[in-house]
Design goal:
This protein has eight helices and twelve strands. By secondary structure, it is α/β, with parallel strands linked by helices. The chain has a five-stranded mixed beta sheet with strand order 3-2-1-4-7, sandwiched between helices. A hairpin with a 2-residue loop joins strand 9 and strand 10.
């Protein structure tokens, strides 16, 4: 059996299974202080048989450099109590198994890439929710560079109906996350996107920003597919609006344009935990 953890800012999803495609037990716990949440997670695994390895897809920022003494840490997160948390090390000590570790969105991207049949020249996974993040798989591997991508913090061109809102990112103001995350939508219009009427201007404005990010990804990485998950992405019609707007923005230029696809997750809400189990598998290979 392998174990997986999708470590999020509001909840930890735990699962065990003989393979990433076959989850035999799962459990969700709220994300509280690490001193409470991590032992609670370890105890759940201890009560669910012997696992040979564990995979963790975590909220970030995280340290992914295998040569760093801080590999497997959550680093400078503003989330109280979690800064400099040795997430991977805790479970290696407590469970005595090897741990595979990556961002939650890279894990989700790997799982969606596997579910796609590993075709289409790579895949990006964007989550649009409390925050905005993205993972990228090229040539079958998650992209790390010197750290990990932070796709939520690019700067889109301001939409014509949305010039005055300053944005809510504490670092950048009107970056993509500062403009199009759930809290940015609530700050602007006092409701979630799905609670606003279907003819509200917010739908086109938010779709425009996300479509710009998609165009940037298609243009700079030539991935074939962008998968959009997260709470805001559950708004009926949003992903379809994004796909249509991205085609408009491209105006027929990009060489892969006819084959670009912007879709909802094939794995639904299971992309992250499936990716975590794939990370568990990867350390046994
Ligand atoms: Zn930002």
């Amino acid at each position: 059996m392998r174990g997986g953890i999708e470590a999020g800012g509001t909840k930890f999803v735990l699962a065990v299974g003989p393979s990433p495609q076959e989850i035999t037990a799962r459990h969700t716990i709220p994300t509280r202080d690490p001193a409470i949440t991590l032992p609670e997670a370890a105890d759940w695994f201890a009560g669910h048989g012997v696992i040979r390895s564990l995979g963790i897809g975590s909220f970030g920022p995280v340290e992914l450099d295998a040569n760093s003494p801080r590999w497997g840490f959550i680093t400078n997160t503003p989330k109280p109590g979690w800064s400099e948390c040795d997430l991977a090390g805790f479970f290696m000590d407590r469970l005595g198994v090897p741990v595979g570790f990556d961002t939650d969105v890279n894990a989700a991207a790997m799982a969606e890439y596997a579910a796609s049949g590993r075709a289409g020249g790579g895949l990006a996974y964007l989550t649009i929710g409390t925050g905005i993040g993205g993972g990228l798989v090229l040539d079958g591997k998650p992209v790390h560079g010197i750290a990990h991508p932070e796709m939520g913090h690019i700067f889109p061109r301001r939409s014509s109906g949305d010039r005055d809102f300053p944005g809510i990112c504490p670092h950048h103001g009107d970056c993509l996350e500062g403009l199009a995350s759930g809290p940015a939508i609530a700050a602007r219009w006092g409701a979630s996107l799905s609670d606003l009427p279907a003819d509200h201007a917010a739908h086109a404005i938010i779709a425009d920003y996300i479509a710009q990010a998609c165009h940037m990804l298609f243009a700079s990485t030539a991935v074939g597919e962008i998968v959009i998950g997260g709470g805001v992405a559950n708004t009926p019609g949003l992903v379809e609006r994004v796909a249509a707007r991205a085609r408009e923005l491209d105006a027929g230029y990009l060489p892969g344009g006819q084959r670009h696809r912007i879709i909802r997750p094939r794995l639904g809400g299971d992309a992250g935990i499936t990716g975590a189990l794939m990370l568990a598998e990867s350390v046994l290979a």
